[in-house]
Design a protein that fits this description.
The protein is mainly beta. The relative contact order is 0.15. Helix content is 3%, strand content 63%. The longest helix has 13 residues. It has 1 helix and 24 strands.
């Protein structure tokens, strides 16, 4: 292998220096042909991020109807954040998963006021199946079972198409830490490497973490990010191999924010050695935003509307939550009747990606004369630094000898 080829291979690491993304398999608005260097990216959970609305047809217990401009809003993990309907929504919780090439499946739990005149609350479990028909369109089929506060229950199906509402971007959306995966292709050979970039609010790279440090000073600039997330970058840098041979590199990159947490990029580069010989290569890749969490992010009080579901099919909504210290230890049990809470103990752990798990143990008074000893097996994830999604498997034993189980789901917001 020539020194020049070695230098080109080393650029795998160096390209990670640059926040240069944006490649799509379709023609752009200017009518230019598709990018020939792009690697198709399969649909994944972050493809759901954003708000989706459309016309949906409902058929079931209450007859048939069509609702227009309704849907859901999801985060970059597929968690349902908002139910977009013309009714008073009490809570929405659940998650959709995406499998290759474009299949969607999952369960969403909701509670809303279905009859405002009678103040009737409807709690629903929606089993969702569907698929991406494009990056901005979903075809869905939903099987829904519901119970109402007036004692009635029923089911219905939902079919239709949801379209993604447009996102708007600016250069400040680049700020943060990103995991970079890049492919460099030269002389018919492709190599994949990764690195971690930190970018400031002006789009400047302020830090990068790679395994190699055989590159010299680099310089470059980004164009401003357009409202639809497109931008470019031009960069120069040098590399020196173990034998002291130096090459100078130039790169021009086309970039696009696919979502707030995912970027695609492609471009061309050249390397020139001390003898004046120049080789050319292409780069393609993606960046995924790194959101780092720890148990300390639980510190404070978390409160929200929780749907409790029992083995007999009944369910209801309660307002509740917990307080934690900076190590994830629970310090307080929050709810509408805090005087009924005798004690709470246990610890939750938090992974770097924001996954929450652990077991809490509680004692509370029931019907004034009885007490429940409960075990709460909790799983969930951070939706943001101030919102968490939780799923609870609960089991209790009552002082009168009764025992039981139930599940609880909901989103808790940080209140302090």
């Amino acid at each position: 292998m020539t020194h020049t080829s070695q230098h080109i291979i080393f650029t795998i690491i160096i390209v990670a220096l640059f926040n240069c993304f944006g490649c799509s398999g379709s023609s752009n608005s200017g009518g230019e042909p598709p990018c020939t260097n792009c690697i198709p990216v399969p649909y994944v959970a972050h493809s759901l991020e954003g708000s989706w609305r459309g016309e949906l047809h409902l058929s079931g217990t209450d007859g048939e109807t069509t609702l227009d401009n309704v849907g859901f809003r999801f985060d970059n993990l597929g968690n349902a954040l908002e139910w977009l309907i013309p009714y008073e929504v009490i809570t929405v919780n659940g998650k959709l998963d995406v499998s290759e090439p474009n299949e969607i499946s999952g369960t969403i739990y909701t509670a809303h006021i279905s009859d405002s005149a009678q103040n009737i609350q409807e709690n629903s479990t929606m089993t969702v199946h569907g698929n991406f028909t494009s990056e901005t369109s979903l075809s869905i089929h939903v099987s829904c079972e519901f119970t109402r506060s007036d004692g009635s229950r029923g089911s219905y199906t939902v079919t239709g198409t949801l379209n993604k509402e447009g996102n708007t971007y600016s250069t400040t959306d680049l700020e943060g830490t990103w995991q970079n995966t890049v492919t460099v292709e030269a002389d018919g050979e492709a190599h994949i490497e990764s690195s971690v970039l930190t970018i400031d609010s002006q789009g400047n790279i302020v830090d990068n973490v790679t395994q190699n440090a055989d590159f010299g000073p680099y310089s470059g600039e980004f164009g401003s990010v357009s409202i639809n997330g497109e931008f470019t970058g031009t960069f120069t840098f040098s590399m020196t191999d173990a034998d002291g041979n130096k090459t100078d590199h130039k790169q021009t990159i086309t970039c696009k924010l696919i979502s707030a947490d995912y970027i695609e990029y492609s471009g061309d580069g050249s390397s020139t050695n001390s003898a004046g010989n120049t080789d050319f290569y292409t780069v393609t890749g993606n960046l995924q935003r790194i959101r780092e969490y720890s148990a300390s992010d639980l510190e404070g009080s978390w409160l929200g509307n929780i749907i409790l579901r029992y083995p007999d099919g009944s369910n209801h909504v309660e307002t509740g939550g917990f307080s934690f210290d900076g190590k994830g230890n629970v310090t307080e049990w929050l709810g509408v009747l805090p005087e009924d809470f005798v004690s709470i103990s246990g610890t939750l752990s938090v992974s770097q990606s924001g996954k929450i798990s652990g077991t809490l143990y509680g004692v509370n008074r029931v019907h004034d004369t009885e007490t429940d000893n409960s075990t709460f097996d909790i799983s969930g994830s951070f939706l943001s630094k101030t919102s968490i999604n939780v799923y609870v498997d609960a089991a209790y034993s009552r002082s009168n000898g009764a025992e039981g189980t139930y599940t609880a789901t909901g989103a808790l917001d940080k209140t302090e």
